[in-house]
Amino acid sequence: MWQPHCETMERGALEQLQLTRLRETIQRIAENNPAYWEKIGSPRAEAFRSLDDVTQLPLLTKADLRAGYPFGYACAPQKEFARVQMSSGTTGKPVLNPYTRADILQWAECMARCLTTAGVTREDVIQITPSFGLPNGGFGFHYGAEALGAFYIPAGPGRTLLQLQLMRDLNATVITAIATYPLRLMEAAREENFDFRQTKLRVGIFGSEIWSDELRARIGREMGIETFDIIGMTETGGVGMGIDCAAHQGNHVWQDHYLVEIVNPQNGALLPDGQAGELVVTTLTRHALPLIRFRTGDVTRIISRERCDCGRTHLRLARFTGRCDDMIIFKGVNFYPSQIEQILLRHEGVAHDYHITLAYDTHGNETIELVVEQTNFIGEVERERIAREILDFVGLSVTPNYVAAGTLARPVGKAVRVIDKRK
Ligand SMILES: [Zn+2]
Predict the structure, then answer these.
(1) CA 193, 222, 189 angle in degrees (round to 5)?
(2) What tens digit of pLDDT does each residue of 309-323 get?
(3) Average pLDDT of the residues in 368-382
(4) Within this chain, do residues 230 and 160 fall inside the same structural domain, yes or no?
(5) 3-class DSSP state of 193
(6) 344 phi, psi to nearest 5 deg
(7) In this structure, are 262 and 365 located in the same domain?
(8) Which residue, of 307, 325, 343, is where some domain finishes?
(9) Are residues 296 and 333 in the same domain?
(10) Cβ distance 235 to 279 under 8 Å?
């Protein structure tokens, strides 16, 4: 562990620390940003008697943060800013997260813990493939690797053949990426007869996108690595809010830095542990952009607050199953693209890429088309089985169209799975 004392803290002490830091965060907002403080109901820090009191505060949305562009929610003067990251939203104004020097140290600490949790040490060679720029990924891993004192390769995204070459020639042992990038690496490796097992690679740390257990198993098998699921986003201070450990029993959240809740995405009501809903995050140690009850849009549940097999006491979240805004409603059936992916990837010969297109036909009826890439020809029996599983598990009646691998467009950055022409 990077900080055994913090990571194994007894639950009572951990929650007391969270309460103290919640009060400090409220105090910081009250002193530095009157408009923000008013928006959350002008609470007095000393009025917080227990962590449950946080539920009396309103929820903060990404739209709120956007409306505050550029620094409407900042709680430090600009002369204290050391850097800024920007969320990679697709529409509207971006969200900027300014960092003070203290925020950068907080980020480095969280990332060093995450890397250590994935078994990475200063002996490792870390290849960093997320972007070094306004999105937070590249720099998050950079600060974590610096804290560890490990050798790292700031490769950045793309140039997949060069990535494979560097991986082999520089003896990379760890690769970090957005979760669908390993698919590009695997694809390029097959074309080039590049064998991951001839490299020193042993660990993959992936995040920023929903990736199913089935995809995870496939990446682990093809690349011959152990994979770890890292969480965190620009708004919360970047990648590194938590990660899963060698026990792979859910993603630990660094509770001394973050207070998390699960709410009903429809009405914002708090949900009990175990029930799936939207992840809401309150930051406890961020200075320039402290968040109070920020709605992340990620769908998950709290698996356990008990001590994990790895010895850590910080609570565990289930791997994210979708984004609230990714939920598709088709002819009254609610589903997430990840549910389709889980079914597809169980079948040999089905490639990783698929598109779901929703539209209206000339009579105004909703239509769905599912196009799936195949690496081997999918026979009739298998096709029927896949269609039946989609009906049984998702409730959708759809017959996929199979096309050759490489047919579907491959965007740079996050994968596009759904094209909704109904909007
Ligand atoms: Zn653990």
Answers:
(1) 25
(2) 999 999 999 999 888
(3) 92
(4) yes
(5) coil
(6) -55, -45
(7) no
(8) 325
(9) no
(10) no
The domain spanning residue 179 has which CATH number?
3.40.50.12780
Tell how strand 277-283 and strand 294-300 pair up: antiparallel
User: How many other C-beta atoms can be found within 10 angstroms of the C-beta atom of residue 21?
Assistant: 19
Sole residue written with tokens 């036909």: 361
Distance 118 CA to ligand 1 centre (A): 10
Give 234's DSSP letter.
G
**Whether 197 and 346 share a structural domain:** no
Pick from 316, 151, 347: nearest CA to 242:
316
Tokens of 92: 């509207």
**What are 245-269's pLDDT values in tens digits?**
999 999 999 999 999 999 998 899 9
* pLDDT value at residue 327: 79
Residue 400: CATH number of its domain: 3.30.300.30
Burial of 129: CB neighbours in 10 Å, binned 0-12, 13-18, 19+: buried
Q: DSSP readout, 79-127? A: GGEEEEEE---SSSS--EEEEEHHHHHHHHHHHHHHHHHTT--TT-EEE
- For the chain, what is the domain count? 2
pLDDT tens figures, 69-93? 999 999 999 999 999 999 865 567 8
Answer for the pair 66, 92: CB distance below 8 angstroms, yes or no.
Answer: yes
CA of 354 to the centre of ligand 1 (A): 33
Distance CA(295)–CA(216), nearest Å, equals 26
**The two structure tokens encoding residue 341:** 């992916």
Ligand 1 centre to CA of 75 (Å) is 33
> Where in the sequence is the domain holding 413, given as residue range(s)?
327-420
Last residue of a domain, one of 325, 355, 374: 325
For residue 308, the CA-to-ligand 1 centroid distance in Å is 5
Q: Which residue has the higher pLDDT, 365 or 411?
A: 365
Say how many Å lie between the CA of residue 138 and the centre of ligand 1.
25
Mean pLDDT across the chain: 94
CA of 269 to the centre of ligand 1 (A): 28
Tokens of 353: 């890429």
